[in-house]
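dumping this here before i forget
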Amino acid sequence: MKKRSAIVVGAGIVGLATARTLAMNNYSVRVIERNAKAVGASIRNFGMIWPIGQPDGDLYETAMRSRRIWKEVSMEAGIWHDEVGSLHLAYDEKEWCVLQELMEIYSYREYRLFDPAQTIITSPAVRHERLKGSLFGPDEMIVDPRQAIAALPTWLSEKWDVEFTWGKAVTDISYPAVYMGGEEFEADEIYVCSGADFETLYPEVYASAPLTKCKLQMMRLSAQPDQWRMGPALCGGLSLVHYKSFMKAASITELADHYKKRYPEYLQMGIHVMVSQNEQGELIVGDSHEYGATHEPFNKQWINRLILDYLRQFAHFMDETVTQTWNGIYPKLTNGEANLVVEPEPGVLI
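structure:
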């Protein structure tokens, strides 16, 4: 039988994941990317595969499935990955109370509560002053997003015969054709995976959807000397009021009220502080959350300063030199949902 054909617009992680699934289901797949390589939100993040942040149900099951796929693909494609887990740190009795409640609520997830001594053994980066303890999650895994997103197209081409067209912007779609200036391709199915670009294709669809854009500021610190590793990814207490899975703790409201008084600037800018480490030993630190339809391209130094100040409350490193700063723009649903799937015309899915 003749293979069904598919075109995927966008070579970020959503486009690459879509291409993989289609190819595994015996489609002939072409991915079209407007840039010479993926440079958007998919390479501007921590590289954290993060099940601990998801509540029970579809989101948690999706996160665990994502982890399994990332591990399988990383091993096949030779992509560096580090199954280090995560460490959420408590320096306040209210934070420690939340961690203890989460341990009880999610006992089946194999979390572990560590006292200060166990915490410091687990990560030499943790500051011991005022430390109450930590919650260790075993499932979190780190990839280097820049390396991974660059390597996946080659793997998809070699294993699944996925074709890539780089440096061509799809400016119009009229099923079954996609148009790039004077060029066009046709396919049985078309998938639009263009991230936070709400303006080029089907702008009326995006305008009617509950969507906004989120700007995140992040930084990279120097590779640590002597191949020093920090162990698990580290999170300060502010992360406890950021992720949906932690909202089940009975005392989370009390902690949030405490933060409103102590960290009003942080909550106003959506700042919670995490750090991961890549293969080279560099540290990726962030982040903040600003919402709106249009964002200035410039980073706010005072936001970076707040992030670093908070980081130093719970972690210290051998070399804390900031080598890069950047921001990423991500699509965000305003109705609390995690996914948007729309059929703007028959044969086309956003």
